[in-house]
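TA notes, week 10

Several of you asked for a full example with nothing omitted. So below is the full record: structure tokens for the whole chain, then the designed sequence directly under it. When grading your own attempts, check the secondary structure regions first.
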């Protein structure tokens, strides 16, 4: 298997995770979460960059999983829409932080990410 076939296989795994996230039940959410960590573990292009890849995959894959939460929060705060958006942003931020902490605990040796302007 050459490099591009391996890359295509691993990208196919990520797309499969997005499709799996559309399975809207609690078991599907658990399986999707475990699947994220499995993809990080077996994909060679995520080595030593697991935190940034987890961040990107959680953005893409957890939007369909969070649809019931989004509907519930926006229905609960129907009179205060702006406050509902702040609550959703807080939930999303906490979710990202928790996944980042767990990822860093599982893979402590990662490259630093530098952004230059």
């Amino acid at each position: 298997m050459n490099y591009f076939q391996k890359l295509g296989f691993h990208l196919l795994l990520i797309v499969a995770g997005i499709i799996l996230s559309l399975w809207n039940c609690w078991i599907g959410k658990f399986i999707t979460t475990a699947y994220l960590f499995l993809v990080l573990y077996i994909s060679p292009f995520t080595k030593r960059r697991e935190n940034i890849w987890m961040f990107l995959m959680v953005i893409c894959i957890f939007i369909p999983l969070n649809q019931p939460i989004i509907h519930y929060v926006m229905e609960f705060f129907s009179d205060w829409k702006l406050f509902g958006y702040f609550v959703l942003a807080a939930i999303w931020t906490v979710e990202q932080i928790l996944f980042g902490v767990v990822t860093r605990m599982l893979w402590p040796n990662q490259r630093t990410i530098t952004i230059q302007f």
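The chain is about 75% helix and 0% strand. Use that as a sanity check on your answer.
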